[in-house]
């Protein structure tokens, strides 16, 4: 750690990992509900478990992104953070608001929560992933604005690099696109448009910029490759991510009542969305091959390479699989989507946050470069456990999805939704099994932070 | 200097990262062209009928404008190799004018279509015609902006006989924009 | 360097001539009387071949891929052949 104020990142990272564990627990609850419908009913019905699972994911990733920014921006800008106090204050505001929201989901019926929080004044609740009460949404905006103010002024007074520029564009975009969640038109088509302007432009637009810049930072630090080379790659990756990602929004407009040309625009441009992810893979491996130092923090390098590969597979390949309109006509809203969602989020965003945590946390905890060998071994085991079980979750869900599409929509005698759900039960059981392994991997990951021992410190030249 | 040119290199002239970007761009256009061709195969009558409403003469002028512009970019690079910055910047200015000519004529075409009330939803042919040409139009604008940067740099004397990688890279991008039009022109305006 | 300018001029002139020829083919009304005997598919093939040649010329001489060896030497060729094949399949089959 080079600057005192980078230490605020630690709070954010710890909260992120804590919420991550919560997310996975609810994922397991919900996975079980697929096969045992009344499990934990009426305490935690399926819709609540799902809401908590997805909302926790978003919140913890946001914690991760902010932590990453608080860590890397002072280092890139070569100056202390504008206001560490504000960063700490906003951390607690965000955490308390997040916790209260989740408790609200769990303790009172959703409609009561809407009444309690005065949703009728400015109705924004009730949309998938954006279920947060209006006051929580306002809270998120305040946190995001103070965050942007804080990191923005840090960059302004310090060195400006391409990495900070791209990260700032990504984070500003994240805040701006969130504003669409406040507009909730009565017209269902319009409603869907604005909803996608948040959801799609986040995960297939600005979040990719955040991911690419964090990846570039970790690679600069762990490979010692020239900044100039890494920055060039960053430019072309974000250019491609924006061209394909922005117009690619069209693949959500196929069946919502939008004009027909979106079938073409959406199909063509979203079919090309794998390109930036492919570039990231080539980029990461190229940089590691050209490395000038052998960084002693091996798990960080492993996460960085892992995120590049898994993002390409999950977001790129699994996304491409059902993005063309003629295919999506059959697969829309089936378990295929779930399979894609799981591997894409894990590969692109979970792993990049874990990569920066893996790199930064030892330094934040006052170590010279990395954790002890024993801790590193445990962390790498957790990497493989989580990654492989996620591959299996994805494969099982894909299997379930293909069967579902066939039985429910493609065969000569289509069956009803619930009948089909019974038929694909076996896949859900296997998915739940893989989910348990994922939780074990995650717990091992948490445990690896508590393994002591002698640290390796030396950076060897290649 | 002269010997260097005869030795074959492993990577194309210019920045490799930019070449990867060029490949990605070409892929986007390639997919778009193929989509056009296959959509046409299912609607041959419709495509032939509305293709006849396009102005091939303007498209010809535009093709020549882009080719000439590309020609001047190549000339600018040769001039830099001879260490003639003045001459090089003049060539670049001419190249930019070529690009602007393209934009002006293309906008004339668009305004004509607009006055007839044609838009993306009119029919499948116009959807493709407008999408493809507009997507290319945006690339021409980007290309011109790149050429402007190169022109300013050249005037500032950034490039020398030894070091003019930026100029070559930017030039390659501009040639790509030109190249795509060379397929687009016959495909949309003439082939039937 | 004089040689470079000369090559540049030759390539440019060729490109312009090929473009004019393409345009000229567009002026011929395939369905009309004069060319009734000429099969439309031949027209298409000529147009496509010209387009491919033009792209190749730009790649080789303007982008200077003729001074490159190995994979990158053929990158533009690869693209234009692939794209051209798809177009040809769609037009001819």
The biggest sheet of chain A, with number of strands, parallel, antiparallel or mixed sense and barrel status, is:
2 strands, antiparallel
- Assembly form of the protein: heterotrimer
**Biggest interface, which chains?**
B-C, 50 and 49 residues
Fraction of residues in β-strands of chain C? under 5%
Give me the secondary-structure category of chain C: mainly alpha
- Count the DSSP helices of chain C: 3
Any key phrases for this structure?
heterotrimer, A: 462 residues, mainly alpha, two-stranded antiparallel sheet, 16 helices, B: 192 residues, Four Helix Bundle (Hemerythrin (Met), subunit A), 81% helix
Task: Describe the fold and architecture.
The complex is a heterotrimer of chains A (462), B (192) and C (93). In chain A, 75% of the residues lie in helices and 1% in strands. Chain A has 16 helices and two strands. Chain A has helices at residues 8-35, 46-77, 84-107, 110-116, 134-157, 162-178, 188-223, 227-248, 261-271, 274-289, 298-321, 325-331, 335-364, 373-410, 417-423, 425-448; strands at residues 293-294, 460-461. The radius of gyration of chain A is 22 Å and the shape is globular. The model of chain A has no long low-confidence stretch (mean pLDDT 95). Chain B is mainly alpha-helical and 192 residues long. Chain B has one domain: Four Helix Bundle (Hemerythrin (Met), subunit A), CATH 1.20.120. Helices cover 81% and strands 0% of the residues of chain B. The longest helix of chain B is centred in the last third of the chain and has 33 residues, at 124-156. By secondary structure, chain C is mainly alpha-helical. Chain C has one domain (2-92). The longest helix of chain C is centred in the N-terminal third of the chain and has 26 residues, at 2-27. The termini of chain C are far apart. The mean pLDDT of chain C is 88. The interface between A and B is medium-sized, with 21 and 17 residues.
Please render the helix and strand layout as text.
The complex is a heterotrimer of chains A (462), B (192) and C (93).
Chain A: H1 8-35, H2 46-77, H3 84-107, H4 110-116, H5 134-157, H6 162-178, H7 188-223, H8 227-248, H9 261-271, H10 274-289, E1 293-294, H11 298-321, H12 325-331, H13 335-364, H14 373-410, H15 417-423, H16 425-448, E2 460-461
Antiparallel strand pairs in A: 1-2
Chain B: H1 2-6, H2 16-42, H3 44-51, H4 56-81, H5 85-115, H6 124-156, H7 165-190
Chain C: H1 2-27, H2 40-62, H3 75-92
